[in-house]
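Give me a protein, keeping tokens residue-aligned:
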Amino acid sequence: MTTQSQSPFDTIRTMSADILLHSTDLLSIDPSVVSGALQQRLEAFRTARSEDLHSYSALTPQDELGLNLFFNTVNFCFKDPTSGNEYHYTTRDGRQLKRTTAFITALAESGLAWNDLHQISALTIEEWTAMIQLGEQNPLYLGIERNERITGFARYLLDRGHATALGFIQANDFDCLKLLQVFIDCGYFKDDFLKRAQVALKMIDTLTLRRLDRGLNGMQTLTCMADYRLPQVFYNLGAVVLSPVLKERLIRQQPLISESREELALRASVIVIAEQLAHLMRISEAEVDTLLWETSQHMARAGEMTIPHMLVATDKY
């Protein structure tokens, strides 16, 4: 099969295998740990699934669908690389939230009709700054640009005849590959690993199953979602063996350069290992992604992440 005939997902798998083939000086995969300790961890979470922490039943199904869609145009890097500040948000009931949970809650509590593309496209900088509580004491990496991406994507969909987020999904037949092609063409999900685009598909699938009684077609074709946290699971459990130099950089929390060999190798390990786990466990790679993420959160809370996750100033994940 040539690269030209591959789906975007298969292209990611081929690319990742090639990256690791040329990254043996940086890291290696221990197959015995993948099929042993790592698989056992995931099997444990498979029988004790966590609830969806990002579900907002106070919104209509259509608005929650739009929220999931637009959130993923800007779902990246919630720790400001200049100040080290972790983005935070004070909820309507006074809770103090940080990072991803803070941001998506701010969007959910904004009062915007996230299904209405005309309303989203008209979101001003002033409205955006107020609704996410952006300010001198609360900086956010690419904070203003996130507004521009959300409104730009809304205009992109409007220009193609879609007035609502649900209408956009329906017009593409609830089909993963059709939706992904729009994400690629619009330019707001740019990433060789298509992490945010695939997270958007997974969140939309979860939402439509839960609230509209149907999921997306083709979810079994997705890869795992290559981010900063999943490689941390691998090297803390020994499934990925780091070179002494890379391990020291991570321990010292020295930021990796975006698109560097180190970053690409760590992200590629997610794709390759998750594909192996999917075969071993006879589930989809998207399901492996969910289990790996839940495992990462449990390990972090339990103090098992002795080697920190990588730091990269990026808008890709």
User: Anything to note?
Assistant: The radius of gyration is 19 Å. The chain has two domains: 3-51+221-301, 61-191. The first strand starts at residue 27 and ends at 29. The CA atoms of residues 89 and 132 lie 7 Å apart.
